[in-house]
């Protein structure tokens, strides 16, 4: 991409191809001999990281699509069965879902890098604008991908976001109808989102090619913001940049693997493990963390149309950045004021993200307005003004001068910025769940679970006892529809033999048919059957239980959560605390009180529960001491029952957890060794260049 | 990309029997995939809705214009918040009407916006009384 190549392959077959299609020469000139500034720091490896992530997303996405069913009635179930039954389906899904978040982590670093070092300035305007287009496409893709599992947050996120377009005067309503393909978000919406979600990544890949092309025409910017002048200022892309990028990617993969194997649900929302229900709105609708700053801008403007315009212009304004900032010095390294304002801007974005996850009331609204003003002021007031009044420090004559003049003091801003960015990630990530922090109920006490932590395993005894409690107590009202009898004999489960699972299944009566006469009939259960639900449909369940349908328990420990609040959610990232759901379920089972406290009136047919949001629960106290007999001598107390049944329900929600953590450990060992090798290879390759 | 024929056909008018809905109760039915609230309003709710100075409302509309005359006790509205499409909860909020949990919009007992970011009142779907206890929506 940087002019005609004089590359000549030595192999005659390759020569034959090269004469007809000079693709090897193109590769050679773009990725081997391409001159790259020798003073690039690690923030420049994020381009390679992003290409890697795009590849991962497309690869895992294509395989996931082979198992997914884009239908409103089947989508949620197909995703669940994919995770349970497809070989390494859990890994594919985690890689893809976490991958989306990691993709945005990397893109935000990449964009802020461009902002800090002035990479959008002449002659790289088109390069920058192509980047903004990629970012917009990524947002659309990410949003539509989030809709596909068809959980509660998928459905309501889709409703809220598609309704944004209804704010457009005159044509808004028609646009929304076109997006929906009906009168509301429904099956046609899911179908078109699936189609577009499959299409857009390939558009992104296309624009990425343009982006790289534009980059290779104008050349890379660098931390000193002076263009390379002589041969001494650059090093060849291979091996220098290649090996450095490999090291960057392997470090990034460590973070990625941390989420995939140890905290796959940390960045998600528990509500998305509840199937979509058009009749119930979740109490807080929060988008994925990477949209939160823009969501905060939308909500802080009281007028609907103005809010939508504000949100979109917050992104579009980036396209005009090359002309808003007219300063001649590129790098903020030599711009003392711009540097300060840059970090203030980063803080503003982080805080906006935090506010986006908070309920829109009181102080949050006012803070949101102030920060929205700051966000736009940075682009419209600060940058244009700075380019007129700021006196930049002298810029080195050339890159090699800058490299020679390098001293130890230069590394300080790197460290401080790394700290700010780490904090940013943590704050963003956890802010989603802090939205549900205070629902007016007590926080469940923490428990010691055998399955917690990086080496956690299910306690087989607890799983077997929990199954008994479920069968004798919970199963009277609650289904377990994603769990099959055969699962009881699978590795990482309660540890029954295949024969035991078959015997267990044969105790159940399962409806089958129609037979040759066209009648439905009942037969004994087989290992392949799923646990039968106590009620034929949701309406029957509702009618039999005073209007509140008992939820299916297959996913309950992942579908329930409680806010950990600041700063606990940051601590949770390091301690791998993932057990909000089990803590809540176990607390709920023990949280019944015979009499409501003074001043609390319960609606008819409700019971008081200390941990249930709103305290009025329709389920009567389900467990009492001695209710279920245990054969292994474990105490037959409510506390023990709760613990056992919660362990069992954690297994039903995540039957492959042991495999996940085991594989995670192996992957970590590999990645650490790999990253180490890359680091020392990189040091060797760069030994003469520093 | 517009709705296909089966979707349009499924959006045909529906009939709803009102006789089981007691005073002060409300029911939610689905029409065209949208929840429709049918409230049997109490005398107090009607009086509150009519006592308001119409000109002071964000989206001025009198209660009389939002219900069918002779059937003042029945309020029929599409239960979709005009802000961003969430479903408001009936019998909540400060105005004896609806409260949207997403962004805090509050509607009164006539389904009119009183507080919060929503720009307009809850829309009244096309409907008519087939008999005293039965309505046809659509």
Automatic annotation (TrEMBL), chain B:
GO cellular component: plasma membrane
One Gene Ontology molecular-function label: metal ion binding
UniProt keyword Metal-binding present: yes
EC number in record: 7.1.1.8
Protein's membrane topology: Single-pass membrane protein
Coiled-coil residue spans: none
Catalytic activity as recorded in UniProt: a quinol + 2 Fe(III)-[cytochrome c](out) = a quinone + 2 Fe(II)-[cytochrome c](out) + 2 H(+)(out)
Cofactor note: Binds 1 [2Fe-2S] cluster per subunit.
Localization per Swiss-Prot or TrEMBL: Cell membrane
Listed PANTHER family: CYTOCHROME B-C1 COMPLEX SUBUNIT RIESKE, MITOCHONDRIAL
Membership in a protein family: Belongs to the Rieske iron-sulfur protein family.
Protein name: Ubiquinol-cytochrome c reductase iron-sulfur subunit
Species assigned in the record: Bradyrhizobium diazoefficiens SEMIA 5080
């Amino acid at each position: 991409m940087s002019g005609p190549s004089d590359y000549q392959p030595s192999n005659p077959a390759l020569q034959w191809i090269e004469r007809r299609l000079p693709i090897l020469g193109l590769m050679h000139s773009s990725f081997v001999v391409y001159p790259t500034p020798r003073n690039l720091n690690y923030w420049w490896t994020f381009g390679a990281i992003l290409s890697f992530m795009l590849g991962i997303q497309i690869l895992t996405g294509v395989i996931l699509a082979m198992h997914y069913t884009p239908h409103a009635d089947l989508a949620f179930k197909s995703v669940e069965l994919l995770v349970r039954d497809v070989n390494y389906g859990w890994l594919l899904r985690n890689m893809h879902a976490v991958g989306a978040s990691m993709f945005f982590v990397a893109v935000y670093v990449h964009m802020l890098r461009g902002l800090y070092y002035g990479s959008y300035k002449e002659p790289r305007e088109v390069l920058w604008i192509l980047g903004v287009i990629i970012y917009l496409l990524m947002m659309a893709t990410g949003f539509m991908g989030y809709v596909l599992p068809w959980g509660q947050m998928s459905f309501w996120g889709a409703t809220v976001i598609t309704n944004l377009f209804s704010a457009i005067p005159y044509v808004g309503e028609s646009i929304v109808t076109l997006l929906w393909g009906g009168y509301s978000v429904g099956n046609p919406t899911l179908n078109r989102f699936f189609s577009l979600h499959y299409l857009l990544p390939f558009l992104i890949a296309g624009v990425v090619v343009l982006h790289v092309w534009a980059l290779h025409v104008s050349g890379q910017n660098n931390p000193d913001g002076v263009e390379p002048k002589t041969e001494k200022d650059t090093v060849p892309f291979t091996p220098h940049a290649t090996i450095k990028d490999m090291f960057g990617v392997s470090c990034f993969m460590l973070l990625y693997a941390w989420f995939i194997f140890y905290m796959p649900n940390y960045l998600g929302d528990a509500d998305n493990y509840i199937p979509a229900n058009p009749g119930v709105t979740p109490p807080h609708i929060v988008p994925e963390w990477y949209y939160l700053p823009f969501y905060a801008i939308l909500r802080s403007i009281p007028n609907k149309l103005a809010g939508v315009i504000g949100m979109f212009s917050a992104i579009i304004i980036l396209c005009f950045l090359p002309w808003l900032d007219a300063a001649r010095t590129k790098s903020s390294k030599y711009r003392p004021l711009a540097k300060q304002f840059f970090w203030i801007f980063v803080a503003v974005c982080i805080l906006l993200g935090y506010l986006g996850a908070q309920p829109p009331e009181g102080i949050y609204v006012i803070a949101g307005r102030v920060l929205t003003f700051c966000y736009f002021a940075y682009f419209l007031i600060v940058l244009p003004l700075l380019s007129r009044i700021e006196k930049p420090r002298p810029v080195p004559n050339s890159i090699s001068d800058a490299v020679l003049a390098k001293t130890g003091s230069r590394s300080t801003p790197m460290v401080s910025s790394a700290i700010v960015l780490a904090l940013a990630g943590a704050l963003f990530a956890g802010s989603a769940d802090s939205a549900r922090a205070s629902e007016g109920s007590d926080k469940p006490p923490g428990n010691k679970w055998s399955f917690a932590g990086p080496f956690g395993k299910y306690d087989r005894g607890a799983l077997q006892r929990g199954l008994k409690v479920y069968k004798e107590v919970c199963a009277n009202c609650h289904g377990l529809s994603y769990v099959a009898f055969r699962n009881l004999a699978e590795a990482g489960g309660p540890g029954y033999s295949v024969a035991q699972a078959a015997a267990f299944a044969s105790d159940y009566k399962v409806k089958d048919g129609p037979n040759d006469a066209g009648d439905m009939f009942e037969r004994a259960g087989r290992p392949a059957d799923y646990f039968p639900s106590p009620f034929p449909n949701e309406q029957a369940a509702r009618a039999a239980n005073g209007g509140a349908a008992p939820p299916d328990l297959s996913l309950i420990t992942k579908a329930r959560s409680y806010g950990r609040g600041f700063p606990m959610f940051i601590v949770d990232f390091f301690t791998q605390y993932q057990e909000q759901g089990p803590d809540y379920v176990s607390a709920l089972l023990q949280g019944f009180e015979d009499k409501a406290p003074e001043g609390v009136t319960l609606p008819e047919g409700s019971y008081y529960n200390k941990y249930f949001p709103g305290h009025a629960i329709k389920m009567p106290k389900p467990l009492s001491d001695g209710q279920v007999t245990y054969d292994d001598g474990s105490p037959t107390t409510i506390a023990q029952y709760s613990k056992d049944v919660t362990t069992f329900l954690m297994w039903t929600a995540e039957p492959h957890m042991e495999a996940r953590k085991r594989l995670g450990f192996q992957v970590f060992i590999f990645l650490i060794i790999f990253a180490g090798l890359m680091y020392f290879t990189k040091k060797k390759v760069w030994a003469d260049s520093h | 990309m517009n709705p296909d024929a089966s979707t349009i056909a499924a959006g045909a008018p529906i009939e709803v029997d009102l006789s089981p809905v007691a005073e002060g109760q409300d029911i939610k039915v689905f029409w065209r995939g949208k929840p429709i609230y049918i409230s049997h309003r109490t005398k107090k709710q009607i009086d509150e809705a009519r006592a308001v100075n119409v000109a002071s409302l964000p989206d001025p509309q009198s209660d009389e214009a939002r219900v069918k005359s002779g059937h003042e006790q029945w309020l029929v509205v599409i239960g979709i918040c005009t802000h961003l499409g969430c479903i408001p909860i009936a019998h909540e909020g400060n105005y004896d009407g609806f409260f949207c949990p997403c962004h805090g919009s509050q509607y009164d007992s006539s389904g009119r916006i009183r507080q919060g970011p929503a720009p307009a009142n809850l829309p009244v779907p096309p409907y008519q009384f087939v008999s005293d206890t039965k309505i046809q929506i659509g």
